[in-house]
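Example 3.2
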Amino acid sequence: MLSKRIVIPGFLIFVAFSLSKCFVIDTVPEFEKNCLTGISGERNCSFVVPNKWNFLRFRKWLEKLNEKVTDVRLDLECLDGATVFLPWPFRARNLRKIHVKNCLIDGYYSEYNTKSIYSNTVRDMALIDVAILTDINQLIEMNLNDPLEKSSTCGQETNIRFIQRNVTFQFVPTRSPPSIHRLQDGFDSLAEKSKAQAFTCHFDELVYLEHSGSSSISRIHFDTMTDHSVYPNLKVFNFSSNYLPSLPRQLTQWWNYFPSLRLLDLSNNNLKSFSFEHPDVSQEYLYISLVNNNITSVPQDLFSYMSGKTPILINLLGNPIHCDCKASPLSSYLRKLRLRVPQFKDLSNVKCHSPSNLSGRMVRTVNFQVC
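Structure, written as tokens:
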């Protein structure tokens, strides 16, 4: 089941589901009705899916249009339990935007490693509160036997914004569930192929990337994300609410992988410590949100985060900071932050969680001179 649902008035749900057996919204008349034409020839398509919807029919309809179609923008929003057949990476004629919310996605791997006749055109992609229906045995077979192809591995390299928020995998029932050994073989095979792939994914246009709300981040997630991919213009990376227990090197050494990064959101994870290297390069700043983690102490070189050419602004609000002598660098850092970047002075309002006699006290106001 999906963890979030759209709230729709009861009478609309009754009407939609009463008609669901005979009311199909992926026919040519429905495409014409729900895809409004703009003054420049763009098509703005919006569907509320009560039962099922098929991207292949939509793509075929677009292909047969005789008129000039400049940009196509597609929004799909599902009622509870509705399914969309949607093969990754969602290529279609002049498709610039695709947003999918609250849907079960079927056929996600149906065109995986299949050469597409359509080019990359999507600039804005969002999957929000969706579950991807997956045949675990089929997935293992694919990982073991199919080579990695650039078309499906890289996906839409034209994206400017890519959001995956609360995306889960829902495994379909099987009479022969795989053994732990076979699961591991499939995982290891994918990891080896990812390391050895002969192509590079160029996400030159990507500015905003979000992967949030996941409870099943792979231990090789950041390796597969960066080993053969470049993100020269990524400015915002949201990796919040993923139960992340520790920082991978791709984040501690952020400038090697995301040289234009300005905001890194790691809030609501399970981090207990942090450390970020700061290169000798000049940028306005790097803002890192560590809000609501489990951090009790800070790096002893934290003050240097403010003294380099690129100040690193750390938001530690909502963490259980222990105010012993090891918190002295944090106090100095917060006072320096207020002076150097006064527009972010609220970040200095970090409070002590312990010991009890300092609980609730602003860290920057504690006298650490006795240490």
